[in-house]
Amino acid sequence: MEKMESIVKYDSKPLLKNPVFIEALPGIGNVGKIAGDHFATILKAEKFASLYSMNFPPQVIPDENNVIKMASNELWHARTPAGQDIIFIRGDYQGSTPEGQFILAQDIMEILLSYDVSRIITLGGYGTGQMIKEHHVYGAVSKAELKEELSGYGVEFLPGEPKAGIIGAAGLLIGMGQINGIESFCIMGDTSGYFIDHGSSIGLVKVLGKMFGVEELELEGLETEARKLTELTEKATTPEPESKENLSYFG
Amino acid sequence: MEKMESIVKYDSKPLLKNPVFIEALPGIGNVGKIAGDHFATILKAEKFASLYSMNFPPQVIPDENNVIKMASNELWHARTPAGQDIIFIRGDYQGSTPEGQFILAQDIMEILLSYDVSRIITLGGYGTGQMIKEHHVYGAVSKAELKEELSGYGVEFLPGEPKAGIIGAAGLLIGMGQINGIESFCIMGDTSGYFIDHGSSIGLVKVLGKMFGVEELELEGLETEARKLTELTEKATTPEPESKENLSYFG
Amino acid sequence: MEKMESIVKYDSKPLLKNPVFIEALPGIGNVGKIAGDHFATILKAEKFASLYSMNFPPQVIPDENNVIKMASNELWHARTPAGQDIIFIRGDYQGSTPEGQFILAQDIMEILLSYDVSRIITLGGYGTGQMIKEHHVYGAVSKAELKEELSGYGVEFLPGEPKAGIIGAAGLLIGMGQINGIESFCIMGDTSGYFIDHGSSIGLVKVLGKMFGVEELELEGLETEARKLTELTEKATTPEPESKENLSYFG
Amino acid sequence: MEKMESIVKYDSKPLLKNPVFIEALPGIGNVGKIAGDHFATILKAEKFASLYSMNFPPQVIPDENNVIKMASNELWHARTPAGQDIIFIRGDYQGSTPEGQFILAQDIMEILLSYDVSRIITLGGYGTGQMIKEHHVYGAVSKAELKEELSGYGVEFLPGEPKAGIIGAAGLLIGMGQINGIESFCIMGDTSGYFIDHGSSIGLVKVLGKMFGVEELELEGLETEARKLTELTEKATTPEPESKENLSYFG
User: Fold this and answer.
1) pLDDT tens-digit series, residues B18-60
2) Mutation choice for B interface testing from A1, A66, A104 by most B CBs within 10 A
């Protein structure tokens, strides 16, 4: 019997006009997943397909009602107030091996090409190894012409030498977009990389809001989570001051 | 030459009417394998096919007569007193990699679909990490409507948050059943996970007995094995009391 | 581009009448390889095909003339004095992963089926973990009826419980022979498993000699190598006796 | 969906007449890559295709302008002053697994066969584990007849026993050339294997220069890099002499 790497099951096949694609899978600090899930939610996105793969963990998870769900990625559809169709890919998994990630990206790309996707946007975290005081959003693009537009949304571009690789779906999907001649870019919120970072994802949501003309971003929930982390890490790293004078030694 | 993941060899092709499928492969405490093998035996099941795979260990085992047997999973057929056809999958192996488990589940699913299988039941152990005084059977279902029926057979459903994943064949086969619209569920006997647990499998056999209207369950052999384990572990964990007073310190 | 697991290159396509197949690849103590290479040599076998595979190490070896040779298995052909065609598989490699071994066995099997092979014989070592004083040849068969014939050639059959698995090509090829209805067996020379064991391979050559009616077995070279190992290991394990009296303590 | 191991994207399809192929991928001391990249540069080679693969790391690298580039190997074309077409394969990656290397070599081979390649030359390092005072170029060939010609270019051939394997693309491509009846050889600069070794690559460039009648080899840059390494390692390994007399002890 022939090996099938992926199984795609459609709940429905929505008619979409030159949709933009947004990748929101788990990654560094889960920054991209949190931002993409939030943006999909405020746009009232609906699931239309599930993608199962031999490259996900071989398991099902029973939910709170003991109804199982197989490891999967899901395709969701939304339309912006301005009428722009968007396809989101969401889920709790990326391929568990390098080869698996490549194959999944190929399978997703094939679906996107069948939908005449007009743009590929991947969301990610930019790990710095240090706590971030003020968050930034950095970009990497399939062609230099995209940078001016992105700068208008507040995306910054790091100067200097070739950067660290963008790995997994966030990298491969814009890479495959590029070689298929589709405008593609990754936007990344900077993050320490040590925590699930809602604060960093807020920056990504704001960029997406400007890009798609969405004004009500409903950021309260993300901000609350972000504050929790800030408080937690400040408590962990701030020494108990013995006196005001001593404090200066710690900056 | 093309890669073939699995080879299926049929001894015969029984005519089966909307069979129910029962998975009884090795897993936690071998609870599912022991229960399924026992239920197949009391129903006088007969082997009708063998499944060989590159995902099993690359070996043959010579038996007591030095006749070899290749690593395989086997399909067995039985009919209940009430006339219900059952297909069992039995064997000593599961796929040796995550990808291999997914491919095997796909191959098995393909066979089941060709038989118009009406239900998929997987048998497993629910590892608790603690010795079990009184065994329970827990369920996970492909759709909520199945829970009432299963409760009638004594299956319980754990409350609360999403549970630990059901891994391997016991998970993947009900997952693939679910995405193919086939009623599917896993029933699991709780077990410490540290031992081969015949005691836990008795609960599964009783549930299967009620489900299929089989009254003579011939549990003596399983009960004898279960008692052996109980005696062994009690000996190992019960301290020699010095006096009645001291005993209370140990609970 | 499609993945090709193996590449078979034919130097010639000999016309063979129901050939017997003999597997002589590396394994425990290299017992099977040494015996098979020797038997092929005394029968003046000729190479007729090479099999290259992604499951061999990705390398070429330059020979003493700096002419390269790619990692491969080779098919050789010989005809016995009695006119029986034999196909040998020889080489320095087995598949480097479990899956690779299965795929190679499938590829080899496909070739054998195309040649209407009448019997599959695999040669191996039976590792005991102990130095062997007097060598034996043990057998494992695809069907019990073969044992009487093999006993006539001096092959012995170990009594009792299921044995340790026969792994790799020596196991998979008789397993695949069995499921294709071809008489298949493995003959194994016992060996410590710690050394390349020419002494053990002599037993296999003698069995092959009786089986195929070959009388001149030209064993001198193998016997010389065997004596070298015996002398080496005796020196290493025999204590210098202080006196005759003390010697008894060492057996 | 079917698994695709490699994706080849052509920028253009140059018309080439019986091109010679030169492999210049990373390897021991990067000797082959440095030499091949240099020779391609002085011949003003142009890229005409990119090869992407599931066997490369699953990532894109943003360049100094934040424009991404997917992990790839590239095909470049040049024509020598004498009118000989050459195809180079260049890049920063080899397949990340043994199987991946074999598959990539097959994919490259298929392209070369479609171009009626007349010769396959692979460039590599010959690791000695010791610092090299005076560099040599060693050869390994698909057939003995090639040695005389190569000797004329200054290539030497190591005497004696079978050599260590030539692994990866440098080995597999001449192996596959050999089994396809194409004249193939590997030339290797000797190198310690501990450093990126520009000095060793100079030898390879000189051999290529003689082979293709290229006189202006523009070696200044390579010689500068080579001197840096020489100075660095001499500093690290030369003891501070206490006096002239003592020095002789160190040779």
Assistant:
1) 999 999 999 999 999 999 999 999 999 999 999 999 999 999 9
2) A66
For chains A and C, tell me whether 3 or more CB atom pairs sit within 8 A of each other.
no
Q: Is C64–D106 a contact, with Cβ atoms under 8 angstroms apart?
A: no
Query: Which residues fall within 8 angstroms of residue C246, CB to CB, at 6 or more apart?
Result: none
The Cα D116–Cα A160 span in angstroms is: 43
Could you tell me if D172 and D239 are in contact, meaning their C-beta atoms sit under 8 angstroms apart? no
Q: Which of D168, D174, D184 sits opposite C58 (nearest CB)?
A: D168
CA distance readout (Å), A3 to B5, B26, D3: 7, 23, 9
Which candidate from B99, B140, B172 shows the least CB-CB separation from A62?
Answer: B140
Q: Which of C127, C124, C85 is nearest to C204 (CA)?
A: C124
Q: Which residues, at least 6 apart from D171, have a Cβ–Cβ distance to it below 8 Å?
A: C58, C59, C60, C68, C70, D122, D165, D186
**Closest to C32 in 3D by CA, of C198, C206, C214:** C198
Which ranges of chain C does DSSP label H, i.e. alpha helix? Answer: 31-42, 98-114, 146-152, 169-179, 198-212, 220-237, 244-247
Measured between CB atoms, does B167 come within 8 Å of chain C?
A: no
In whole angstroms, what is the distance from residue A73 CA to residue B140 CA?
A: 21
Written as six digits, the tokens of B68 are: 């070899």
For C198, half-sphere exposure in the C-beta direction (CA atoms, 13 angstrom radius) is: 14
Q: What is the pLDDT of residues C110-134, one digit of tens each?
A: 999 999 999 999 999 999 988 888 9
CA closest to B11 among chain C residues: C179
Q: How far is A74 from chain B (nearest CA, A)?
A: 13
Q: Residue D69: which of A176, A233, C182 has the closest Cα?
A: A176
CB contact under 8 A, B68 and C166: yes
Inter-chain residue contact B172 with A58, CB threshold 8 Å? yes
Q: Which of D6, D140, D175 sits opposite C1 (nearest CB)?
A: D6
Distance, CA of D230 to CA of A14 (rounded, Å):
65
Interchain contact B/A (3 or more Cβ pairs less than 8 Å): yes
Phi, psi torsion values for D146, nearest 5 degrees: -75, -15
Q: Which structure tokens are listed for C67?
A: 């002419």
- CB spacing of B139 vs A66 below 8 angstroms: yes
Collect all residues with Cβ–Cβ distance below 8 Å to A59 and sequence separation of at least 6: A70, A71, B165, B166, B167, B168, B171, B172
**Binary contact (C58, D139; C-beta < 8 A):** no
The verdict on a CB contact (< 8 Å) between D141 and C68 is yes
Q: Cβ D178–C64 below 8 Å, yes or no?
A: no
Neighbouring chains of D at 3+ CB pairs under 8 Å are A, C
Which residue in the set D141, D162, D186 is minimally distant from C64, CB to CB? D162
C chain contacts of residue D99, beta-carbon cutoff 8 Å: 54-55, 100
Helix, strand or coil, per DSSP, at residue C106? helix
Closest chain B CA to residue A59: B167
pLDDT digits (tens, 9 = 90+) for A63-118: 999 999 999 999 999 999 999 999 999 999 999 999 999 999 999 999 999 999 99
User: How many CA atoms within 13 Å lie on the side-chain side of A159?
Assistant: 0
Query: Can you tell me the ipTM of this complex?
Result: 0.89
What is the residue-wise DSSP string for chain B? ----SEEEEES-----SS-EEEEE---GGGHHHHHHHHHHHHTT-EEEEEEEETTS-SEEEE-TTSBEEES-EEEEEEE-TT--EEEEEEES---SSHHHHHHHHHHHHHHHHHTT--EEEEEEEEE-SS--SS--EEEEESSTTHHHHHHHTT-B---SSPPPPEETHHHHHHHHHHHTT-EEEEEEEEE-SSS--HHHHHHHHHHHHHHHT------HHHHHHHHHHHHHHHHHHS---S-HHHHGGG-
